[in-house]
Amino acid sequence: MWYGEYNHTLDDKDRFVLPAKFRDKIKSFDNKKFYLTRGLDSCLLMFHSTVWQGLEEKLKGLSFTEGSSRAFNRIFFSGAQEIEIDTQGRVSVPGYLKDFAKIGRDIIIVGVADRIEVWGKKMWDDYYAKNSGNFEAIAENLFK
Q1: How far is 44 from 37, CA to CA, in rounded Å?
Q2: Average pLDDT, rounded, for the chain
Q3: How far apart are CA 135 and CA 137, in angstroms?
Q4: Measuring CA to CA, which residue among 117, 88, 118, 121 is closest to residue 104?
């Protein structure tokens, strides 16, 4: 559903504009509600509400008696914000999420199939440099 890597910047109100390809896709949606939350590897995750609902059901099914389930759900859901994209395709990033992802002015927006990831540029550059050289080895281990 979401694909590509895009360089963007936050404005003075901590908003970013979604890539044109994403905005065009969203125009066709009846429901324009999204959720933005803490992600893994110090990025933010953005899900359309239909994907979010399925993810929420799956995570609610984890045992609350298991410590790792409780910890993950608390951190993941406490960071979540329901957002609506404005008419210009802008998304506001709350300060605590900006701090979590170490986001400055420059950001990278990455489409990863069912989600959109928002990265601080330096965090993305570091992540990409660390993992891109292992791409083939990772693929070999995943598709055995």
Answers
A1: 6
A2: 92
A3: 6
A4: 121
Supply the CATH number for residue 60's domain.
Answer: 3.40.1550.20
Q: Which residue reads 């990409």 in tokens?
A: 128
For the chain, give the secondary structure using H, E and C.
CEEEEEEEECCCCCEEECCHHHHHHHHCCCCCEEEEEECCCCCEEEEEHHHHHHHHHHHHCCCCCCHHHHHHHHHHHHCCEEEECCCCCEEECCHHHHHHCCCCCEEEEEEEECEEEEEEHHHHHHHHHHHHCCHHHHHHHHCC
The model's pTM: 0.90
Domain count, the chain: 1
Q: Which domain holds residue 84?
A: 2-142
pLDDT digits (tens, 9 = 90+) for 7-48: 999 999 999 999 999 999 998 888 889 999 999 999 999 999
Give per-residue pLDDT as tens, 82-100: 998 888 999 999 999 999 9
Q: Quick one: tokens of 33?
A: 């509600």
| pLDDT number for residue 144 | 66
- Per-residue pLDDT at 64: 78
